[in-house]
Amino acid sequence: MSNLGLFTNCGIFVGPYNITGRSNAVSALLQKEIRDRSYFGAAGRIKGTGLESVAFSAAGFYDASKDIEYLLHDVNTPVSLFIPSTAGAAVAAGDRAIFFKALEAGYQRGAAFGEDALFTFQALGDQLGYPVGIGHVLNPGLVAVTADNTPAASIVLLTAAAANQYVYGVLHVTSISTDEAIVVKIQSDALVGFASPTDIITFSSKAAVGSEIAVRVAGDASGDTYWRAIADVTVTGEPCSVTFACAMAIR
């Protein structure tokens, strides 16, 4: 019997926290409502699709430096799950990403005396205007960026965003070592060399750890199929180190 996959190196981000290294269980249940659209005179029942939703959970070992229960005060916290495409391999640019804004959240931690402190985190999302992003990783958030205008990870070849589609993006800044602000952009280009990139999404400037799901951007007829995330650190005469995860979706 062949081994179809090992779920060992996913990336889990909640707001500004990377909880990958403390988690040993994660799941995401994606659903879409089925509504009754029947009317008088119809020959039979007519069904239609309603709102979509996601139920996310993660569990593992409690880490006081990543006290994510504080995020329960903000129901708009971005949550992301990065899934490696190769069994046992680390997450890489181009791998599957699922991200959403948490509409409801729950948190539990504790254990018996002398046992490991454990936590369980649940989040639900179904917000209009910010649907579940099912897309691709642009930067897995594993390596710090240390120079201005640095592409965060490999260039990813995807489809173009048609005029009737939108581009969605999520950003998790998990560490930053400078007092200066950084700006992360999602760019596209028609060629792999990015000789003339177009800024598709520009996230809000970040001077500290934080997270954001950007306002969606309408597609166009440019036909660009190459995508990347780039960091503009705008630091002069000062060393910097910024770690962030970024993903996008076209829908």
Write a short abstract of this structure.
By secondary structure, the chain is mostly beta strands. Helix content is 0%, strand content 47%. The protein has one domain.
What features would you describe in this structure?
The chain is an all-beta fold and 251 residues long. The protein has one domain. 0% of the residues lie in helices and 47% in strands. The protein is built from no helices and 18 strands. Strands 1, 2, 5, 6, 9, 12, 15, 16 and 18 form a 9-stranded antiparallel beta sheet that branches. Strand 7 (104-110) and strand 8 (118-125) form a beta hairpin. The chain is globular, with a radius of gyration of 20 Å. It starts with 10 loop residues before the first strand and ends with a strand. 37% of the residues are buried. The model has no long low-confidence stretch (mean pLDDT 86).
SSE ordering: EEEEEEEEEEEEEEEEEE
N-end to C-end Cα span: 37 Å
Name the beta content range: over 45%
Average of the residue pLDDT scores: 86
Total strands: 18
Taking pLDDT < 50 over at least 5 consecutive residues as the criterion, the unreliable ranges are none
Secondary structural class? mainly beta
Number of domains: 1
Q: Major sheet: size, sense and barrel closure?
A: 9 strands, antiparallel
Which percent bin holds the helix content?
under 10%
Principal-axes geometry comes out as globular
Q: Any idea what the radius of gyration is?
A: 20 Å
How many H/I helical runs? 0
